[in-house]
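User: Round two. Same drill as before: sequence, then structure, for each protein.

Assistant: Same drill it is. First protein:
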Amino acid sequence: MVRGRPRHRAERRDDLRHEPAVVEVENTSMRASFALAGDNVLLELIQYDSPQPKPFTGRNCDVGVMHLCFEVDDLDTAHRDLVERGVRVNADPVVLEDGDGVEAGALAGTKILYLRDPDGIQLELFQLLS
């Protein structure tokens, strides 16, 4: 779900109304953007106008909570730029390594950074090992 973010560069449909059985929410009014990413991924960004959504309170360990992960060319620069803009990052970037319950495998050496969007939804950035 996306609240108040009409900046999507994908097909946008405003004021969609669905039968409650489709989304399992009564009296819905929503806006949505859809984008194909590759051959088998459909990204849906949905903003419910009614009913009024409750604030997001999920943690990564909670059932059903997911996050998006985006590849960047230079994670350190992205981190610095985000902090300068006031974005809430969870911690400084870390490098994936085997140990402490982590099996990095082919991704060993990859840098990752977790952050929160304005609604508190967790996002991840990563930079593959060169």
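Second protein:
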Amino acid sequence: MMTTNWLIHLTTFIDQYLPPLLAGCGIGLFFFATLWITVHKGLKSGNPALWFVLGMLVRTGISLSLFYILAAGDWQRLLISLCGFIVGRQLVHKLIQRMSGEQRVMSGVHHAP
């Protein structure tokens, strides 16, 4: 009987909080990947201020709107989705590190970054 109760609580928790966690992770992936793209495009652009300001407004506007919709008035869902956002940031960071390492090896650069 005790195992069944625990299992019911676990499945309820997963049903309620796994979707906001995954959605927050997706928002984080979107936010930090587009930040990386904006920085690279902005540095090569003739008008970097335009890239940086518009990129920030679009990224922030979309992300905050999605968090508002995702939270649905529940602070716990918002907190879980923000945790997913941090996970998304870590994933983008690891992906960029991997891409940078491959580019360094391919270009023949063998010194510390």
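The two ends are 57 Å apart (CA to CA).

User: Perfect.
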